[in-house]
Fold this sequence. Notes:
32% of the residues lie in helices and 26% in strands.
Amino acid sequence: MTSPPVTVSLTLPSDLTQLEALLAWFNQYRPPTLPLEEWLKLELALAEGFTNAVRHAHRDRPPDTPIRIDLYIAATHIELRIWDRGDPFDLKAKLQTLPPQIAIDAEGGRGLRLLATIMDELAYQAIEEGGNCLILRKTLKPTPQ
C-alpha cells in the first residue's frame, strides 16, 4: 500500500540561521520506505539550494526577503521547489562552464555540481512575477517493506 502524495510549503526569511528550522520541517516528511542514505542526499540538496538563495540570489536584499520551499512527495518521485526573489541566473550555462570534478579549494561551483550529481532533474527558472524557482527532482526507488 502506498502513502498518499504529500504537498506542503514553508516560507522563511532569507537568513542562514533558518537552516535548522528548514531541515526540521523537511525531515518530518521522510517516507518510511525511502532509504536513509537517499533522504540525506535530498536533505543536503535542500540545504544547498536554500543556502544559495540566501547567499547569492538575495545577496543584496534585506534579510526578511522571503524564500518559499514547496515539497511534493509522490510514490515515484520527490520534488523540491525553492522560490527566491533574486535576479535571473542561467543555471544550465553555469553548469556547462564547471569542470566535471571541482577541487575542494575552488572558489565556487561545488554546490551546483553537487546538486547536479544528487538530483535526477535540476532547473532554475525565472518567473513572470519576478524572482526564480529552483526545481530539484529525484526519482524514488523505495526499498521493499
